[in-house]
Amino acid sequence: MSDNILSVIPTDPHWQPGPEAADRAAAIAAELAPGQPDGIDPEVEVSWHDAITIVDCGANLMAIGCPRCGESVDLGWWTDLLETRADDGLSTLLTQVPCCGGELPLDTLTYDWPCGFARFEIAVWNPGRGWFTDEELTALADALGRPVRQIMAHI
After folding, report:
1. What pLDDT score does 85 carry?
2. Looking at residues 69-85, what average pLDDT do you find?
3. DSSP code string of 48-92
4. What confidence score (pLDDT) does residue 37 get?
5. CB 24 within 8 A of CB 139
């Protein structure tokens, strides 16, 4: 069985909210997720990470572009990066890209489906809906006290 995960992360990958703000935002995310047609309620997970974690889009990712040279970044390189950093996270967003050898922050690469980086994440598993609207993102941002963005993963 496959899963969809709609995640909300702060736009600042280093920032983390306090528990009360996280609880407020998680409650809003739960209210906005109707669940599956078969009646299964979505599961909302709130995570704080010691290091920056990759919040990827899973099977939705089809291509990554390099803003420095304009070439495509090998998806095998990205998969290897995810595997090697899955447990420990990232101490820095700087990395050497395989296309041109340039050192770039990972969040400046061009992802054909949004990916992100964060030390805090609200993940709604099988939300029974698509993307949050701009108004809904604003409500989540207001609850957290910081701007947010969203990632939709399919695994």
Report:
1. 76
2. 90
3. EEEEEEEE--BTT---EE-TTT-PEEPHHHHHHHHHHHTTT-BS-
4. 64
5. no
